[in-house]
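> tool_call: predict_assembly(chains=two)
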Amino acid sequence: MRGRRHAASGGPPSAGGGRRECRLLLVFRKTGLLAYLSHLETMRAMERALRRAGLPLSYSEGFSPHPRLTFSPALPVGVASEGEYLEVRLREEVALQGLCERINRGLPRDLRVVRAELLPPHFPKMSRWIGYALYRVEGPDGGGSSVFLALPLAGASRGGGREGAAMPRLRDALESLRKREGWGEGELRVVRAGLYASLDEVKEDAPSGLLEAFGREAELREVSG
Amino acid sequence: MDECRSITGFLLREAGAVEKPARYLGEEVNSCRKDHSAVRLRCVFAYPDVYEVGISNTGIQVLYELVNRRSDALAERVYMPWTDMQERMAAAGIPLFTLESRKPVRDFHLLGITLQHELTYSNAIRMLRLAGIPVRGEERGEDDPLVAGGGPGAFNPEPLAEAFDFLLLGDGEEAVGEILDLLLELRERGASREESLRALAGIPGVYVPSLYRPVYLESGEVASIERSRGAPWPVIRRVVEDLDRFPLPSRPVVPYLEAVHDRCNVELFRGCTRGCRFCQAGMVQRPVRERSQGCLLRWGVEALEATGHDELSLASLSSTDYRGIGELLERMRAELGGRRVRISLPSMRTDRFSLELAEKLGEGRRSGLTFAPEAGSPRIRRSANKDLGEEDLKSVLRAAYEAGWRRVKLYYMIGFPGETDEDVGSIARSVFSALRGERGEKLAGMRVTVSLSTLVPKPHTPLQWAPQLGMEETRRRQQLLKDVLRSRQVELRWHQAEMSYLEGLLSRGDRRLFPVLLKAAERGRGFENWSELFDWEVWEKALREEGLDPSFYVERERGRDEVFPWEHLSGGVRRDFLWSEYQKYWRGEPTPDCRWGDCSRCGACPRGEV
């Protein structure tokens, strides 16, 4: 029984020659009202987008196989983001050209892949290289004053990561920011402007496109310092 | 435009404060947002329950796509906001709005509400109030939307008929086009509301409640139902004879949050002629109409590709009855190979053949098997015409165990007419025998969930004459089972007696219940099918105030010639056939399935035979 079930759940015959597993890093935006999607809902939406795009997803082994996806740490519900990371394991390499459009077909304007890069095979896993989240905070006066806030991340969540794990720390930081800026009680608008790598971890391995994405670390240190 | 912007602003401000904000955001993949100024007729389809329940309804998706394919009309959707959101909307003065354009529902021309279950009726009323639409049809003005109803509840909508301008009985695929064409024509010539309703009544299957008026006897029974001149008698439900002509939704809307059924559905066939005497769908959806394998394959693949779902459900009233189901499954698996798609059969008969099919699906035994023996005792099953031998259940469960299944869910009902304590106890005996092997040894590791509901006699079924259990008696019979079904291998779930009672009240109710419904909708919190919000006292008080005795509707056996509140509505099956089936119930006589046995002359086939 067991053997047959596994056979049924294993993908199409794995590639003899030519095909190689690969790692794809996607950067996606989650904006507007869709900031209110929970982490789990976002993960499901992205997984379905990948399935619709017909990508050769690689699946985990075992009883209930799942596509091997790694998402960057959960955003607090209600916080928009201009750059979340999603690493996708593929059974074979795909062309990057036109890939974002292919995945975005059918997705709403507020949930979009904006960049796709291939990761080298031995690139460290996301929890090792992901370093900081940069938030843009608008004061209660409505866009008059905005301040950048950089917070170190505890580590990437995998699969069903703890939702809102980053929340208490962000809330504390917002409170001290509120005091520092003398903002009073009004509503703050918070957007995650992006996620940044600890460059020391990846500099040598990172493809040029990635360096571009990560390249603002210096600026980031300035903000957090 | 402004209204839409202010609703979006409201959501941006408030969505963080409610449970599951994704219920209200819209912007789902495959949702259809058309330009309002480019069409002449704007429709909203409403499901009077929370988003994750409503989004799983295939009927709405079918109509949604049919309307949106037209260039002259559009359709949007709305679901019942949960109580937390209702409070925020009320506080901010936000009316009920659609998911697509975030425009107020009252700005549309046609609002179609689906009546899937009696316990959503108070929500249907509350939705009208949230939308700012007068709840009584007669109070609506020329600028208010036409309020339409459909779904199983349309077969006896009387308790809330006055809230509807019209309802459609039966299949909607053909009728929706006819209704839209007519509405467009009526708008063109500036027809009044009253004129429009009279014209709509001319479409087969369309029921306009304001053209009928029940008259009651002093005893409380219906004496007769008067109709205006020209109103059809009876209104006969629609039947689509060739389902292949109507594609299943090729681009179903993909919800963000986890829905009750998170998967693609293809409907194998409509109707069922097994003839279970308690089953309304099995009566009013006759005859059986199968879709062809070719269409099912094509639509299944299309829907999976358009949604990215990983499960395809082959739905119908009794999926394993589909002719050539084995071949269809083979072909589906071949077609879907490598796509990582699970195929599921949601309604299986309790037989070896079904078990073999389940094996073929290879879905993994973790999800378990579900069967619906309905009654524990063979005597009651014979009466109910649920043909299933005692040995069948035993041998199927044993075979399932041997094949590696460890979780089984069994659906049973109590409250069959003439049921004895002995009959109730036989549910426990069936369950325990399922936990024993050939020589009486314990089947280690086997887990059985027993879901126990209370029989609610439905209109247009042989049991429409039958009494339903009172609440006390329901609780007593539930207790009988709770006392004996004690085993670590068995989990027993039951329905709250009051909920089944209310379901029964509304199921066979008449128009005198409308004021009760209005009061309950106003004072209660809606969501009657959610046990945490259900409040029988609200209903009890409203019934008292209106001087109505619920047991008259629920617990009373009707006489052969009693005029039913739904006498002017026809489910296609002849009344005298239903009566003879009711007599056969009491005699315990079977009626064979006409797919394999003789024609039972039920009257449902549109041209004698299909």
